[in-house]
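pls ignore typos typing on phone
MU-OXO-diiron + seq
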Amino acid sequence: MRDTKTIPILDTAGCAGFGAGAATCRWKCGSQCAYPAPNPTPGDTFAGVLRRFAGRRALLKSAAAAGVALVAAGAATGPVRAETGGAGVQGPGPTLDFQPITLNTEDRITVPPGYTSRPLIRWGDPLFDDAPPFNPDFQTATAQARQFGYNNDSIGFFALPVAERALLVVNHEYTNPELMFPGYDDANPTAEQVDLELAAHGISVVEIVRTRGEWSYVASSRSNRRMTAETPITITGPAAGHPWLQTSEDSSGTAVRGMLNNCSAGKTPWGTVLTCEENFNQYFANTDAMPDSDPRKTVHTRLGLPGGASERKWERFHKRFDLAREPNEPFRFGWVVEIDPYDPSSTARKRTALGRFKHEAASIVVAPDGRAGVYMGDDERFDYVYKFVTAGRVNVSDRTANRDLLDSGTLYVARFHDDGTGDWIPLVHGRGPLTEANGFTSQADVLIRTRLAADAAGATKMDRPEDIEVNPVNRRVYMAMTNNTRRTAAQVDAANPRANNRDGHIIELAENGDDATATHFTWSIFMLCGEPESETSYFAGYAKTGLQPISSPDNLIFDRAGNLWIFTDGQPGTIKKNDAVFAVAVEGPERGNLKPFLSGVPGAETAAGDLSDDNEALFVSIQHPAEGRTANNPVSTFPDGTNVPRPSVVVAWKTGLGSKVIGT
Ligand code: FEO
Ligand code: CA
Ligand code: CA
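k done
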């Protein structure tokens, strides 16, 4: 049973919150790193092979891009888009020639010379005519449900058919009550505070408009939408209706209230967003109330649900968070949720075919035969990388025809071999070890117990897989492994080559035939993050002299030239600098020349971002500013200079002469 009073905080070294205080650990993931990793099966360990990856790069020289060119339809109901990222793909373009910023610890956003930035929208900003302006001294759940939520994470830019207008779809991952409520009593949250926090989770869909080169948000747009931890959502796919998904509130097992811990996300070619439930475990309490003989308890434990009270104590006010009363409620979380941002009245769907784990993000790419592959990380030490391949093909001329595409297909988990090859292992009921004899009763069962199925399949245990993105130019797949200080020397393998991996790394993967439906791949390590002076850091072979450090890569995006943009989560605790956004070329002589572009503020994570389709604006989530302190003594007063810091989306753009494209 977890005793929330005796969390061994120092064991979180290398985790996001270390150094900034334990608040990130506590609220973001329920202090997961303070406990043994919940993957108890033996690791597929190899001898230390730190440098063996270097010669493997040749394996990644694969055929030229063979993607399916989808034509952007641009219909009023939303476009069917080309490729993954939304930004129009132009192929290798100008090099990244901005002057890098100097990483720092200042309480302001830093961008390179010739650029400027400003907050676009902040926690509490009203989205609707009936929403009050933000007032930290008079907050209500009703108001919060009509205002921009807390701790913005993933950002998706969705073009509108009207010039200079777009939608931003923004996740609200979690809440920091000690920063939201001045004088917050940790031991005695009030019902109103808890309800307000429920309303501060979820997503916002916000219309934005560009006027004279500057983006701003439209406060009363009919396109705006808030979804919270209470919004009705439909559960679809093979696990929908399974007895374990049924509760006293919903005997059908198909209708759930809300989303929790929406971390990163992806944009589908048909103009929907795939938002991902990550550390949902922390919201539930009292696994210990279930008998050990209950097979559901094993699943809850594998996902790290607390044995006793939750740190948030929501179970005091809402019985669905108390496993003593609702042992099935957690099974309704931990999914990928598909939302149509172009239809504010649409019902979101939890797509169970994509598996259930701590979903970090879901990045989708169309294969040569028209099927779609969705890459997903499970952000836990020693957990796995997944891919889902649809059974059907993407319909490029009718976006509504793709409505149920993600309900049928094959879920795979990755096995990385030490020789630079790898396999996608299907998690299909009846195949391999996933049989009745081994206790797997159906495909629904496999999906609800995805981690256990992947354990049985012999997947490779990774160093916290976070965002995974497909480069729209070279077609390779890039995977951020944030860190894992628990990996020992005896547990290193070629894909996770460092013991005590404080700074994380990025893997570069090439599907056979550059085909997202392939079941075999080759891979190499693109970057071993850390101090350039460290002999264990590696910046894709680029001479490291003069470069600045990077730590804990988290979210990734690509610009239309195929350059990689990296958003970090954890630099204050490792390299003692604010988290930052970096850009790096992945091709040519500049490959590996890592350049910091934007620095966040103290206590904050530069959690995620997106580029406008013309690449002339970069939107960045400044998440949990001042985390580690309280609203009574904040380490940051971003963005307003007040004692209640506000997570915000900032926008950066170029003010200098010449091309307005970010990074050029
Ligand atoms: Fe929500 Fe794994 O970051
Ligand atoms: Ca993340
Ligand atoms: Ca991303």
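The first strand starts at residue 115 and ends at 122. Confidence is low (pLDDT under 50) at residues 1-14, 16-21, 42-87. more later
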